[in-house]
Amino acid sequence: MTAIVGGAVASWALLQRDLRAFVRARSQLYSSVLLPLMLLAILGTGVSDGLNPTSRVIRDGDYISYLAPGMIALTALFSSTFSSASFYRDRDSGMLRTLLASPHGVRTNLFGKALAAVTIGSMQAILILIIAAAIPGIDLAWQYGWLGGVALVVTGILAMNFLLSGISLLVATRIRTMQGFHLIMNLVLFPLFFLSGAFFPLDALPDWLRVLGLANPLTYPVDLMQTAAYASNNSGFIGPAIDFAVLGGLAIVFFALGLRRAPRAT
Questions:
Q1: How far is CA 206 from CA 67, 105, 124, 210, in A?
Q2: Which domain does 21 fall in, by range?
Q3: Does residue 38 belong to any structural domain of this protein?
Q4: Model confidence over 100-117: pLDDT tens digits?
Protein backbone atom coordinates (compact mmCIF):
# COMPACT_ATOMS: atom_id res chain seq x y z
CA MET A 1 0.00 0.00 0.00
CA THR A 2 2.85 2.39 0.87
CA ALA A 3 4.46 1.75 -2.53
CA ILE A 4 1.17 2.45 -4.32
CA VAL A 5 0.64 5.72 -2.44
CA GLY A 6 4.26 6.73 -3.07
CA GLY A 7 3.89 5.95 -6.78
CA ALA A 8 0.68 7.97 -6.98
CA VAL A 9 2.36 10.94 -5.28
CA ALA A 10 5.34 10.71 -7.64
CA SER A 11 3.09 10.56 -10.73
CA TRP A 12 1.09 13.53 -9.45
CA ALA A 13 4.30 15.52 -8.90
CA LEU A 14 5.42 14.80 -12.49
CA LEU A 15 1.99 15.78 -13.77
CA GLN A 16 2.16 19.11 -11.92
CA ARG A 17 5.72 19.71 -13.13
CA ASP A 18 4.81 19.24 -16.80
CA LEU A 19 1.67 21.34 -16.40
CA ARG A 20 3.74 24.21 -14.99
CA ALA A 21 6.18 23.87 -17.90
CA PHE A 22 3.26 23.96 -20.33
CA VAL A 23 1.83 27.12 -18.76
CA ARG A 24 5.22 28.81 -19.11
CA ALA A 25 5.58 27.71 -22.77
CA ARG A 26 2.83 29.91 -24.16
CA SER A 27 3.98 29.41 -27.75
CA GLN A 28 2.93 25.76 -27.51
CA LEU A 29 -0.57 26.76 -26.45
CA TYR A 30 -0.87 29.41 -29.14
CA SER A 31 0.38 27.20 -31.97
CA SER A 32 -1.72 24.15 -31.12
CA VAL A 33 -4.90 26.23 -30.68
CA LEU A 34 -4.52 28.87 -33.39
CA LEU A 35 -3.75 26.43 -36.24
CA PRO A 36 -7.09 24.54 -35.97
CA LEU A 37 -8.95 27.85 -35.71
CA MET A 38 -7.19 29.19 -38.80
CA LEU A 39 -8.00 26.02 -40.72
CA LEU A 40 -11.63 26.36 -39.66
CA ALA A 41 -11.76 29.96 -40.84
CA ILE A 42 -9.79 29.60 -44.09
CA LEU A 43 -10.23 26.01 -45.26
CA GLY A 44 -13.76 25.63 -43.91
CA THR A 45 -15.05 28.85 -45.47
CA GLY A 46 -13.14 28.31 -48.72
CA VAL A 47 -14.52 24.83 -49.33
CA SER A 48 -18.06 25.70 -48.20
CA ASP A 49 -18.30 28.80 -50.38
CA GLY A 50 -15.87 28.00 -53.17
CA LEU A 51 -16.39 24.30 -53.90
CA ASN A 52 -19.94 23.65 -52.71
CA PRO A 53 -19.37 20.05 -51.50
CA THR A 54 -22.24 17.70 -52.33
CA SER A 55 -21.51 14.68 -50.11
CA ARG A 56 -24.59 13.38 -48.32
CA VAL A 57 -22.59 13.41 -45.09
CA ILE A 58 -21.98 17.17 -45.33
CA ARG A 59 -25.30 18.86 -44.55
CA ASP A 60 -26.31 21.48 -47.15
CA GLY A 61 -22.69 21.94 -48.25
CA ASP A 62 -21.78 23.37 -44.82
CA TYR A 63 -18.20 22.15 -44.78
CA ILE A 64 -17.02 24.43 -41.96
CA SER A 65 -19.41 22.71 -39.54
CA TYR A 66 -18.29 19.28 -40.78
CA LEU A 67 -14.66 20.31 -40.27
CA ALA A 68 -15.11 21.45 -36.64
CA PRO A 69 -14.92 17.98 -34.96
CA GLY A 70 -11.83 17.18 -37.03
CA MET A 71 -10.12 20.32 -35.76
CA ILE A 72 -10.83 19.22 -32.19
CA ALA A 73 -9.03 15.96 -32.98
CA LEU A 74 -6.19 17.87 -34.69
CA THR A 75 -5.66 19.90 -31.52
CA ALA A 76 -5.27 16.69 -29.52
CA LEU A 77 -2.82 15.42 -32.13
CA PHE A 78 -0.61 18.52 -31.89
CA SER A 79 -0.80 18.65 -28.10
CA SER A 80 0.24 15.04 -27.58
CA THR A 81 3.19 15.48 -29.95
CA PHE A 82 4.42 18.67 -28.28
CA SER A 83 3.91 17.36 -24.75
CA SER A 84 5.92 14.20 -25.41
CA ALA A 85 8.91 16.35 -26.37
CA SER A 86 9.42 16.91 -22.62
CA PHE A 87 11.34 13.59 -22.62
CA TYR A 88 14.09 15.28 -24.59
CA ARG A 89 14.21 18.37 -22.37
CA ASP A 90 14.53 16.12 -19.32
CA ARG A 91 17.18 13.98 -20.98
CA ASP A 92 19.29 16.96 -22.10
CA SER A 93 19.11 18.56 -18.65
CA GLY A 94 19.99 15.29 -16.87
CA MET A 95 16.62 15.12 -15.12
CA LEU A 96 15.61 11.94 -16.95
CA ARG A 97 18.60 10.07 -15.51
CA THR A 98 17.56 11.20 -12.03
CA LEU A 99 13.97 10.10 -12.59
CA LEU A 100 15.02 6.67 -13.85
CA ALA A 101 17.23 6.19 -10.78
CA SER A 102 14.42 7.03 -8.36
CA PRO A 103 12.90 4.22 -6.24
CA HIS A 104 9.46 4.65 -7.82
CA GLY A 105 10.33 2.75 -10.99
CA VAL A 106 10.26 3.53 -14.69
CA ARG A 107 6.53 2.93 -15.21
CA THR A 108 5.56 5.34 -12.44
CA ASN A 109 7.62 8.08 -14.06
CA LEU A 110 6.28 7.29 -17.52
CA PHE A 111 2.72 7.25 -16.22
CA GLY A 112 3.11 10.69 -14.63
CA LYS A 113 4.48 12.21 -17.83
CA ALA A 114 1.90 10.44 -19.99
CA LEU A 115 -0.90 11.64 -17.73
CA ALA A 116 0.39 15.20 -18.15
CA ALA A 117 0.28 14.81 -21.95
CA VAL A 118 -3.29 13.46 -21.76
CA THR A 119 -4.37 16.32 -19.49
CA ILE A 120 -2.80 19.03 -21.66
CA GLY A 121 -4.12 17.56 -24.90
CA SER A 122 -7.62 17.14 -23.48
CA MET A 123 -7.80 20.67 -22.10
CA GLN A 124 -6.74 22.20 -25.41
CA ALA A 125 -9.15 20.04 -27.42
CA ILE A 126 -12.03 20.94 -25.08
CA LEU A 127 -11.11 24.61 -25.51
CA ILE A 128 -11.48 24.24 -29.30
CA LEU A 129 -14.83 22.49 -28.74
CA ILE A 130 -16.06 25.44 -26.65
CA ILE A 131 -14.87 27.99 -29.21
CA ALA A 132 -16.38 26.06 -32.14
CA ALA A 133 -19.72 25.72 -30.36
CA ALA A 134 -19.75 29.47 -29.69
CA ILE A 135 -19.06 30.53 -33.32
CA PRO A 136 -22.38 31.52 -34.95
CA GLY A 137 -21.37 30.21 -38.39
CA ILE A 138 -20.81 26.66 -37.13
CA ASP A 139 -23.99 24.57 -36.98
CA LEU A 140 -23.61 21.57 -34.66
CA ALA A 141 -26.69 19.30 -34.63
CA TRP A 142 -26.01 17.47 -31.29
CA GLN A 143 -28.21 14.53 -32.29
CA TYR A 144 -27.97 13.01 -28.78
CA GLY A 145 -28.83 16.29 -27.14
CA TRP A 146 -26.41 18.98 -26.04
CA LEU A 147 -25.50 17.31 -22.73
CA GLY A 148 -25.21 13.81 -24.19
CA GLY A 149 -23.24 15.07 -27.18
CA VAL A 150 -20.75 16.96 -25.04
CA ALA A 151 -20.29 13.90 -22.82
CA LEU A 152 -19.58 11.73 -25.89
CA VAL A 153 -17.14 14.24 -27.36
CA VAL A 154 -15.25 14.72 -24.08
CA THR A 155 -15.02 10.94 -23.62
CA GLY A 156 -13.72 10.63 -27.17
CA ILE A 157 -11.16 13.37 -26.53
CA LEU A 158 -9.87 11.61 -23.42
CA ALA A 159 -9.66 8.21 -25.14
CA MET A 160 -7.95 9.72 -28.18
CA ASN A 161 -5.36 11.43 -25.99
CA PHE A 162 -4.61 8.15 -24.18
CA LEU A 163 -4.17 6.50 -27.60
CA LEU A 164 -1.89 9.29 -28.89
CA SER A 165 0.03 9.40 -25.62
CA GLY A 166 0.74 5.68 -25.90
CA ILE A 167 1.96 6.08 -29.49
CA SER A 168 4.10 9.06 -28.46
CA LEU A 169 5.61 7.04 -25.59
CA LEU A 170 6.51 4.21 -27.95
CA VAL A 171 8.32 6.63 -30.25
CA ALA A 172 9.87 8.97 -27.66
CA THR A 173 11.42 6.15 -25.62
CA ARG A 174 13.32 4.87 -28.66
CA ILE A 175 14.18 7.89 -30.84
CA ARG A 176 17.33 9.68 -29.65
CA THR A 177 16.69 13.21 -30.95
CA MET A 178 13.75 15.59 -30.73
CA GLN A 179 14.09 16.27 -34.47
CA GLY A 180 13.83 12.56 -35.20
CA PHE A 181 10.83 12.25 -32.88
CA HIS A 182 8.88 15.00 -34.63
CA LEU A 183 9.86 13.60 -38.04
CA ILE A 184 8.57 10.13 -37.18
CA MET A 185 5.40 11.46 -35.55
CA ASN A 186 4.62 13.65 -38.57
CA LEU A 187 5.42 10.84 -40.98
CA VAL A 188 3.08 8.43 -39.20
CA LEU A 189 0.29 10.53 -37.71
CA PHE A 190 -0.43 13.12 -40.38
CA PRO A 191 -1.17 10.61 -43.18
CA LEU A 192 -3.36 8.72 -40.70
CA PHE A 193 -5.13 11.94 -39.78
CA PHE A 194 -5.84 12.80 -43.41
CA LEU A 195 -7.34 9.32 -43.84
CA SER A 196 -9.49 9.60 -40.69
CA GLY A 197 -12.44 11.40 -42.25
CA ALA A 198 -11.54 14.67 -40.53
CA PHE A 199 -11.10 16.54 -43.81
CA PHE A 200 -13.38 14.58 -46.15
CA PRO A 201 -16.02 11.87 -45.72
CA LEU A 202 -14.88 8.30 -46.18
CA ASP A 203 -18.14 7.06 -47.72
CA ALA A 204 -17.42 8.60 -51.16
CA LEU A 205 -13.82 7.35 -51.45
CA PRO A 206 -12.63 4.45 -53.64
CA ASP A 207 -12.85 1.07 -51.94
CA TRP A 208 -9.11 0.75 -51.31
CA LEU A 209 -8.96 4.14 -49.58
CA ARG A 210 -12.08 3.35 -47.55
CA VAL A 211 -10.47 0.11 -46.35
CA LEU A 212 -7.36 2.06 -45.29
CA GLY A 213 -9.59 4.54 -43.51
CA LEU A 214 -11.40 1.81 -41.57
CA ALA A 215 -8.03 0.29 -40.59
CA ASN A 216 -6.86 3.69 -39.33
CA PRO A 217 -7.05 4.05 -35.51
CA LEU A 218 -7.65 7.81 -35.75
CA THR A 219 -10.82 7.27 -37.80
CA TYR A 220 -12.81 6.18 -34.76
CA PRO A 221 -12.30 9.18 -32.43
CA VAL A 222 -12.97 11.53 -35.36
CA ASP A 223 -16.14 9.61 -36.28
CA LEU A 224 -17.29 9.65 -32.65
CA MET A 225 -16.91 13.42 -32.43
CA GLN A 226 -18.64 13.91 -35.78
CA THR A 227 -21.64 11.74 -34.90
CA ALA A 228 -21.97 13.26 -31.41
CA ALA A 229 -21.55 16.95 -32.29
CA TYR A 230 -22.06 17.51 -36.02
CA ALA A 231 -24.35 14.82 -37.43
CA SER A 232 -28.14 14.88 -37.25
CA ASN A 233 -28.16 11.07 -37.75
CA ASN A 234 -25.65 8.24 -38.15
CA SER A 235 -26.16 7.75 -41.89
CA GLY A 236 -22.77 7.69 -43.59
CA PHE A 237 -20.89 7.36 -40.28
CA ILE A 238 -19.55 4.33 -38.41
CA GLY A 239 -21.53 5.02 -35.24
CA PRO A 240 -20.67 5.53 -31.55
CA ALA A 241 -21.00 1.86 -30.53
CA ILE A 242 -18.24 0.67 -32.87
CA ASP A 243 -16.22 3.85 -32.28
CA PHE A 244 -16.18 3.28 -28.52
CA ALA A 245 -15.30 -0.40 -28.84
CA VAL A 246 -12.39 0.16 -31.23
CA LEU A 247 -11.10 3.39 -29.69
CA GLY A 248 -11.29 2.09 -26.12
CA GLY A 249 -9.47 -1.12 -27.00
CA LEU A 250 -6.74 0.66 -28.97
CA ALA A 251 -6.24 3.31 -26.27
CA ILE A 252 -5.72 0.63 -23.60
CA VAL A 253 -3.37 -1.43 -25.78
CA PHE A 254 -1.16 1.44 -26.98
CA PHE A 255 -1.04 3.14 -23.58
CA ALA A 256 -0.03 -0.13 -21.91
CA LEU A 257 2.61 -0.79 -24.56
CA GLY A 258 3.99 2.73 -24.15
CA LEU A 259 4.38 2.26 -20.39
CA ARG A 260 6.32 -0.98 -20.92
CA ARG A 261 9.15 0.70 -22.85
CA ALA A 262 11.95 2.10 -20.69
CA PRO A 263 13.31 5.41 -22.06
CA ARG A 264 16.99 5.92 -22.75
CA ALA A 265 18.71 8.35 -20.45
CA THR A 266 21.33 9.31 -23.05
A1: 21, 48, 34, 6
A2: 2-260
A3: yes
A4: 666 666 677 777 778 888
